[in-house]
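Annotated sample (chain length 157).
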Amino acid sequence: MKSINGSLDAQGKRFALVVGRFNSFISERLIEGALDCIVRHGGTEDAVTVIRVPGSFEITAAVRAAVDSGRYDAVITLGALIRGSTPHFDYVARSVTTGVSAIAAEAKTVVTFGVLTTDTIEQAIERAGTKSGNKGFDAAMAAIEMVNLLAAVRNGG
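Output written by the structure step:
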């Protein structure tokens, strides 16, 4: 049996972080986590471009542009949606999840999803670097592994 795995080597890789500015007190921590992950795994901050969009709804359009540019090995989405008292959360969460997923499924560039969808501010804080780790770090780690995994698959393992 042959097994193909992706390594966690970010050296020489280029990344775009597409980040929703809304709830920036959370998304800024997600950026810090993603950068920490990339640097810890041999990448450099110079190889990272942060693309800031107004909110999570706009992430999909920027992901499409980043993927289409061909400049990046991976595009990492980051943002924070916190449920409020209206259905707006549901519409935006569904839109960004569906949009990013559709791009990821057909793109040759790796796309990972680090947009938080939480019920409370406390849950968002927990996922941005406290109790539940940092989901920006996790999304960057998935991106690094997938870039290397897909390269291995394309090269026959």
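Annotation: The mean pLDDT is 96.
Annotation: The beta strands are 15-20, 48-53, 74-82, 110-118.
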